[in-house]
């Protein structure tokens, strides 16, 4: 099976916890998985990479965590060709911030799509108001996402 890179944007560690929790689940399905908390454009240019999975919190007024902000803005300005890439989004937010709920995930989803990447499945939006532990809904979602990725690989 192919390689998956999990790109993490986190302030307090919740998105990293999600990445660390789902990594062995993906490895059990035969994927080679690497987690990066300092993503760069080079992470996306690796042609051996089958998919990127973003696990990102939303902070402030719909903003990216500091460790993810530079990556997003560099990608948005660079206009990288991503047609070789498949991706998924796990977005963490708090619905009490109604207008900006999970905006970081929505923004990175839009940029990946704009530059030709193929999204696998629907993005997962995890609401901190409903889930104290974000790893639980992520664990439920990741199996379906991996199955959808495998179906696309077979085509």
TrEMBL record:
UniProt xrefs under InterPro entries:
Flavodoxin/NO_synth (IPR008254), Flavoprotein-like_sf (IPR029039)
Question: What keywords are assigned to this protein?
Answer: Flavoprotein, FMN
Q: Which GO molecular function annotations are given, in alphabetical order?
A: flavin adenine dinucleotide binding; FMN binding; oxidoreductase activity
List, alphabetically, the GO terms of the cellular component aspect.
cytosol
Q: Which residues cross the membrane?
A: none
Q: Does the keyword NADP apply?
A: no
Q: Where is the Flavodoxin-like domain?
A: 4-146
Q: Which cofactor does it need?
A: FMN
Protein name as catalogued: Flavodoxin-like domain-containing protein
